[in-house]
Task: structure prediction
Amino acid sequence: MREMMYRDAICEALAEEMRRDASVFLMGEDVAEHGGNFRATVGLYNEFGQQRVFDTPLSESALVGAGVGAAMMGMRPVVEVMFADFVTIAMDAIVNHAAKVAYMSGGEVSAPMVIRLAAYGAGRRSGAHHSQSIESLLTNVPGLTIVMPSTAYDAKGLLKTSIRTQNPVLFIEHKMLYAKKGEVPEGEYLLPIGVADIKRAGADLTIVSYGRMVDVSLAAARTLEKDGVNAEVIDLRSLQPLDEETILASVRKTGHLLIVHEAPVRGGFGGEVAAVVAEKALGYLDAPIRRVGAPWVPVPFSPTLEDAYVPKEADVVKAAQAVMAN
Amino acid sequence: MEYTNKLESRDLLEMYRLLMLTREFEDRLCGLWGRGGVVELPHGSQGQEAIAIGACYGLRVQDQVLPSLRTRGAFIVKGVPTTLQMAGIFGKVGGPARGKSTTHHMTDPVRGVLLGTGLIGSDIPVAVGAALAFKLQKKESIVVNFFGDGAAQRGDFHEGLNFAAVFKLPVIFVLENNGYAEYTPLNKHFAGTNFACRAEGYGFPGIRLDGNDVLAVYEAVQVAAARARAGEGPTLLECMTYRYRNHCEGQTPEYMRDPAEIAEWQKKDPIPRFEAYLVERGLLNEADRSRVYAAAQAEMDTAIRYAEESPFPPVEEMSTGAYAPEDPTLVGGRRI
Ligand SMILES: Cc1ncc(C[n+]2csc(CCOP(=O)(O)OP(=O)(O)O)c2C)c(N)n1
Result:
């Protein structure tokens, strides 16, 4: 099958949706001629012109807020926030308007838009302001849909669906995944939002992950195999909606649960996954649940510190062994 | 030129040295990028150095500056050692916060560098708050906040300026207008004619000036500083300038800017212009020039060697410091 980079899969999804639906447009900082800071929108300006692909002032709250207004009036904006960290500036538009207009209007109107939070996460020595995993700031807001793809295939299919839904979607992309290649079939396909993907089947241990940590979890699963532990790796793909059924079915089978994300463990989304399992499948667990994530500090800059900060295969293996030791 | 006229020869020569050192710092740094060692992505300020030097020369030690991503000279005038800066850029333990932070975003309030931010424009309200503290403390200190034309499009710019005006706070907003925000030219992110006039809307003076004229910047900041120290409130200075290098190193080749535009601005380079002035005043000859340049080179040799030879921070450094210690030597959040 055809291979393509994650960033090109995003671009292809955007192009296809823009060809299909004239109300889809893209705005953000340096997304037009420049093609995006992480090169995920290259060529769109040439194909669709500046009416539909344009650069905005350095104004994240206006960028996202204007997206909300345009969406309410019948457009389908895709707005790019250049680094996911900058979402804090647009938080009001997202939390108080995008997320709530459907409910507060009694269903009269909604904000069907995609907010692409580009380049989240650590790994490029970018320091504390350009490296955060911010998804947990958003998962406690009813009305939002939160998608975090880990492969080119998922990115394309999920982005196309995100553009078509009637609700605001936070589409969160890891900076270290943009250049990752994966198989993407020719032609159109859509993936449903809210369906987790079992990236590796296994019988002994359930590893729930998402975003960049899926690959780290898969690497750990391969290592664990040599120790005789057969791990199943579930890629949530979206945190909201959360595919509880896939998680619960896996845990009922394996009796062991490990959750892996790059965000700090404390207050991270792993706590929610653990709570769901504790509420609905506690009796199936043969060992306490464990979580792997970042420590309780901002992302450090220096290579030695950043490398120590980000969860690695060895951390996942160690935590898995601890779960299995019970 | 009330304040400039009071500058002595040694002040002028010192400003010249600082300009040369800043240029050399940036040139060496950009040259090192991609060859191993440099970890922090350089955002070169070549072409814009006169703003930092003119604005910071003459500030008091206690005055706080908040540099933009392109105010390298502010760190240098404020006395942050080039060794420390370079070690930071190399990600070494001798850098800011023992390797936790980039130099870009460093904090060193003892020397008068309050905050750098990765969130362009978000430092403006913080600058205003520092000025509020000075007012409440009845200090004569002031705050100088540097940012670009891109940053001026943030809501924080408007909120910060209005807040400073309402409470007549001792802060100077130095807008480095280089005509671009990353790859977006000014005419694509701004429909107005100038930024200086925005200050009038908030009730305080805004002045547009030649940011490549180090003495013009010095004079304007000194006038604004006197106003701020007298409790008369803020000033906005829109300094017109240009950056020669790409937004940052390691990016796709420059293709958005016309090489003729870059060449045109190079004719207005702040360093030869100031040199010509010093030569005309009889303060500088070719031998002096070579000496100052050699000294800048030697200082950068030392800084780079120090950075190369310094160790990386120990891993334990990572997990400490998210909270300040409950330590009596921190007074009002500041180490004394
Ligand atoms: C809030 C925020 N939005 C976007 C960025 C990405 N970014 C970094 S620098 C920059 C352009 C800044 O332009 P300007 O303020 O004019 O400063 P200049 O680079 O021209 O010196 C952008 C968009 C950022 N760091 N922070």
Remarks:
- Chain A has a mean pLDDT of 98.
